[in-house]
Amino acid sequence: MKTALVTGASSGIGKAIASALIDQGMTVIGLCRSVAQLPDGVTPLSCDLREESAIRSAFEELEALDILVNSAGLAYLARICDGDPSDWEEMWRVNVHALGLCSQLALPLFPESGGHILNLSSMSGHRVPPTGGFYASTKFAVRAVSEALRAELKSLGNKTRISCLSPGFVDTPLLEKYFAGREDQLAETRANIDMLTPEAIAEAAVHILTSPPGVEINDILMRSADQAM
Fold this sequence. Notes:
This protein has helices at residues 12-23, 52-60, 85-106, 133-156, 173-178, 183-192, 198-209; strands at 3-7, 27-32, 43-46, 67-70, 116-120, 161-167, 219-222. By secondary structure, it is an alpha/beta fold. The chain has a seven-stranded parallel β-sheet, with helices on both faces.
């Protein structure tokens, strides 16, 4: 039985992925702050991903892993020209720094045959939408970190697979924060776009994580059929 650690497993995409992996018969550990909101069957591991010391302490409790899913993320509408730098920093710490550190700390816990790391990126990591702001910068960085780690591991002969999943609009609580102060725009978006569901993203994640040995799916780009950009 494989053991998977899912960050941000208490809501949205992370919660859906954790549930889907439970359905696959895996042991799933949910690393997040709101452990009371974890799906049934997920082992809780409380951690504030904004704090490096908290991440290190959490990983010290783990003995072995086969899979790491870096799903936790923050999305604030923080523009470059006049956005709040504290929002930039918080997004960077969770979306990029924590993702990189969790990946580094997971590697020694993987089997000798290699594990699998799945990073949740975004379509905003492939093109910058008009309101992309600093969030898009963090998602471009997720792709860069993923490619850098993949190259490093190949040079070391480490067979751990590195994958990304890049959705467009997904109807999750993260959207409420991203559209804070622009509720009318969010309502219009929901009215005009049949957005992706967390469960659809989880289905793609399962496809990636259960791919045959020797197959490394590096990225899947997903949009609602209604989303133009």
